[in-house]
Amino acid sequence: MGKFGVVLFNLGGPLSKDDIEEFLYNLFMDPYIIDIPLKGVLRRALASAIARRRAGKTAFYYDVMGGKSPQYELTVKQAKALEKKLRERCEAKVYVGMRYFKPYIEEAYKALVQDNIENVILLPLYPQYSRTTTLSSFEEWNRVSENPSGRMKVLQIESYHDDPLYIEAVADRINVALSKFPESIRGRVHLLFSAHGVPERVIKHGDPYQTQIVETVNLVSRKFPNLHSLAYQSRVGPVKWLGPATPDELKSLAERGVKNLLVVPISFVSEHSETLYEINYLYRKEASRLGIEQFEMMPALNDSPKFIEALSNLILKKVREFGQ
Where in the sequence is the domain holding 97, given as residue range(s)? Predict the structure, then answer.
């Protein structure tokens, strides 16, 4: 087949502290995030109010991270590495489309049109499927894309939570982090898998996210002798979310005498506020206060060769469908 395009979907993040409120506004305008029956002016007013209130509270996150989210730069690195890998086998071009900040999904679509790409694969950088991330990105693509002639054929990769190479890539990153502990105790370091939480009602409505997170954790943990547990972070709002919450699990582990802890950000494939601030700053401080002696965080997959190979293989399998 001829040239095809790949669009990497990610959440995006502020490129400077001046962008925080706009980013949050876009986030809270998403009906999959604030899933209450509001439209038009009312939804915009609510999103604007929440964004204004939270912008000041979250500004410190970005101070810790150097004044901006690194997610855009890291996603571009992933795109370049993936394009290079794909071009070993075929003619492909990789684009980046962010859900909540620049470059938006619409910009990726316009670039594909300008480049006369007719075959497109959409690849969310969310290994586990959720309507709050994966479906939201697909729906945004559908909203901004225009294909009246039917020339553009679009295929979707919905999840890869159990892909063997993806699992190996995570295991490799865990080994990198475990190397920071004395060799004699590495097999006894507790592994705390921390996933981004979602409201419980999302799962009750049939979302497979929690099931896929558990499957990923089970597949990864089999590769290690270490004890492990799973918790959820980044709760927002008063509704009940998946639990246990990561801070609560930290407290529980400390009370059980855990002194050496490795946190594995299992639902994230690039660094951003949930890893660099929430885990590596906020939870690190809390762990120290609780008496945990050595706290480490697994580095995100970013553009690790094995992760890029996993993505490449997923795409090449999907490419075959263009000829059908």
Answer: 4-160+306-323
Q: 149 and 8, same structural domain?
A: yes
3-state secondary structure the chain: CCCEEEEEEECCCCCCHHHHHHHHHHHHHCCCCCCCCCCHHHHHHHHHHHHHHHHHHHHHHHHHCCCCCCHHHHHHHHHHHHHHHHCCCCCEEEEEEECCCCCEHHHHHHHHHHCCCCEEEEEECCCCCCHHHHHHHHHHHHHHCCCCCCCCEEEECCCCCCCHHHHHHHHHHHHHHHCCCCHHHHHHCEEEEEEECCEHHHHHCCCCHHHHHHHHHHHHHCCCCCCEEEEEECCCCCCCECCCEHHHHHHHHHHCCCCEEEEEECCCCCCCHHHHHHHHHHHHHHHHHHCCCEEEECCCCCCCHHHHHHHHHHHHHHHHHHHC
**Predicted structure pTM score:** 0.95
Q: Are residues 186 and 205 in the same domain?
A: yes
pLDDT, one tens digit per residue, over 95-108 is 999 999 999 999 99
Q: Are 170 and 275 found together in one domain?
A: yes
Same domain, 113 and 139: yes
- Give 149-188 pLDDT, tens digit per residue: 567 899 999 999 999 999 999 999 999 999 999 999 999 9
